Amino acid sequence: MSNIAHTYYPQSGRLVVLGAGESGVGAAILAKDRGFDVFVSDMGQIAGSYKATLELEQIPFEEGKHSEELILNADLVVKSPGIPEKAPLIKQLRSLNKPLISEIEFAAQYTDSKLYCITGSNGKTTTTMLTYSILKNAGLDVGLAGNIGNSFALQVARDPHACYVLEISSFMLDDMYHFRADVAVILNITPDHLDRYDYKMENYVASKFRMVQNQGESDYFIYCLDDPETVAALDKHPTKAIHLPFTQERELEQGAFVDANKNLNILVPNREVFTMNIEELSLQGKHNIYNNSAAGLIAKVQELRNQSMKESMGSFVNIEHRLEHVASVGGVNYINDSKATNVNSVWYALESFSSDIVLIMGGVDKGNDYDMLRDLVRSKVKAIICIGKDTGRIHEAFEDETDVIVNSASMSDAVQIASHLAKKGDTVLLSPACASFDWFKNYEERGDKFKEAVMAL
């Protein structure tokens, strides 16, 4: 086991983990291995597999409650990113000046591995998976963690790698203070989760830019030059890191751009120039050119061979529930984009297909502003089928933009209605723009139910 790499927090004493999901259980195991007195507390019911792991590791835990007498005496608290700041227990811990940190912040103390960190409102998972795939195919010893894959802390404890690709959400970043990314990527910043940021866009932007805090002159900052929120915030959040922007709107001397011949060019100082025609990329659509640009820049920073990069970028298969082609039934294509839980993700999805779309959307509205979808809905969407409980705002937003807006009683009902409305050559697109917690456990279950209903047609 490696020695402590960077210490900013107590290295012994009582450590409490709030939340017993993937990140929480991983943090508990790392803390146990490091000699802490560990206790895990979850307000909900702990999933069977995680409970079994905690029992096997002999880590004490509770579920269905937070016992203050077992928590407030902590020397260090690692909290699930899903627990909001306004939760009474968090306020109490803050008032006692207890250090509250994320699993990523905790685990980063115990590794000197290279950390390639990706955030953004949209495209995080695709870019993270693509980057991981490129590095792994090139023979690197690489781990995948953060919002995806196995817990970062668990890998640092029991399955260490030379480098990690980390998908990092704003909720994780909020509890990160000393963590440093060797390569920090901000793909884009569009309104999302504003309920967690006092409905202020600048608070959400500041959260995303925590990615570059602590970066030094030998680190890299990769960002989208075509994203207005990111560009507007650059001056407010300076970093000493080497800047590698990417764009589809002009040519650059450093970074990534698409030229007039539709070639993606990647130029990193002191590295071989990379060129690949965008039509050879396995992931198509404007948004995926951005995702490939970011992943390609990371690969070039790592000095990967061009041929290896081309093979990976030309053969990568996208993740489940993100613009996933389910089936073609009667000449109608059914696309599962259940992971689109915000408006901008839906914009990307609509931009990826030609017209005659039957759009299935709805769920738990997070304060969505549907204005940015109006033009695309008007030009491409022939019908909207609403799912979930918050349908009123969808009707209000689009009643003048499309001929048909109807509510459905279930996912199978929505798919049945869609199959009657769609003609040969049309696309039925599940791209909800909303959270899933009204009808489903999570976006995965929502996507699975959609796929089941399509296969039953």
Question: At the fourth CATH level, what is the homologous superfamily of the largest domain?
Answer: Mur-like, catalytic domain
Q: Tell me the radius of gyration.
A: 23 Å
Q: What count of helical segments does DSSP give?
A: 17
Distance between the termini: 54 Å
Helix content: 25-40%
Q: Name the poorly predicted regions.
A: none
Q: How many distinct beta strands?
A: 20
Structural domain tally? 3
The structural class is: alpha/beta
Q: Based on Cα principal axes, name the global outline.
A: globular
Beta-strand percentage range: 15-25%
Query: Which sheet architecture does the biggest sheet show?
Result: 9 strands, mixed
Rounded average pLDDT:
92
Strand order of the largest sheet: 7-8-6-9-10-11-12-13-14
> According to CATH, what is the topology of the largest domain?
UDP-N-acetylmuramoyl-L-alanine:D-glutamate ligase
Assign the CATH class of the largest domain: Alpha Beta
How does CATH name the architecture of the largest domain?
A: 3-Layer(aba) Sandwich
Give an account of the 3D structure:
The protein has 457 residues and is an alpha/beta fold. The chain has 3 domains: 14-101, Rossmann fold (3-Layer(aba) Sandwich), CATH 3.40.50; 110-315, 3-Layer(aba) Sandwich (UDP-N-acetylmuramoyl-L-alanine:D-glutamate ligase), CATH 3.40.1190.10; 324-455, Protein-Tyrosine Phosphatase, Chain A, CATH 3.90.190. It is 33% helix and 21% strand. It is built from 17 helices and 20 strands. The strands form 3 sheets. The protein has a 9-stranded mixed beta sheet, covered by helices on one side. The protein has a 6-stranded mixed beta sheet with strand order 15-16-20-17-18-19, with helices on both faces. α14 (374-380) links the parallel β17 (357-361) and β18 (381-386). The termini are far apart. The mean pLDDT is 92.
